[in-house]
Design goal:
The chain contains five helices and no strands. With about 160 residues, the protein is mainly alpha-helical. It has one domain. The chain is globular and about 40 Å long.
């Protein structure tokens, strides 16, 4: 089959685009968009008490449920102004695990009728941490399953590979 110049003009950009997408997907289980200074409100409101988790770790409905119940945020009153809550809700919804056209690993296995409010209760998180001895969660240096930084030193920068 002979490929003429006009076909090359179409094929080459497609090959480049597919290579780029495949490269991103190959690291999807190790990297999630971190919360940065551009996300100042998220850092201020969420990062004041715990690591500001990537919005890509829960579906939009889960983030909406969390933000709607900040007066009882895992046993703490994390209430914020209605304006800030609306901004956070928009941010997390626009960048959630299911905001893209194909979702991500955190959305796989989640029942569509269920909106988990804990990242540690998603099927993906459970599958990735099956080998961790449950006694480790009681370790004073780790404290809980939600302390990503205890095991993933680059979590705040989006890196969740096995350190």
């Amino acid at each position: 089959m002979k490929i003429n110049l006009s076909n090359r003009i179409i094929i080459l950009p497609l090959v480049a685009m597919l290579s780029s997408v495949m490269s991103i997907n190959s690291h999807a289980d190790e990297y999630y968009r971190p919360v940065t200074q551009q996300d100042a409100l998220v850092l201020e409101e969420c990062g004041a008490c715990h690591m500001a988790y990537s919005s890509e770790m829960l579906p939009a409905a889960s983030w909406q449920k969390i933000i709607a119940n900040l007066d009882n945020h895992f046993g703490e009153d994390a209430s914020i102004s209605p304006e800030s809550a609306a901004q956070l809700s928009a941010f997390f919804s626009e960048n959630a695990a299911d905001s893209g056209w194909f979702g991500n690993r955190f959305t796989r296995g989640i029942d569509q009728n269920r909106s988990p409010i804990r990242i540690t209760e998603t099927p993906y998180w459970i599958r990735e941490h099956y080998e961790v001895n449950p006694a480790n969660w009681q370790n004073p240096e780790i404290k809980s399953k939600s302390n990503c930084l205890a095991c993933h030193r680059n979590a705040e920068r989006g890196g969740y590979d096995d350190d």
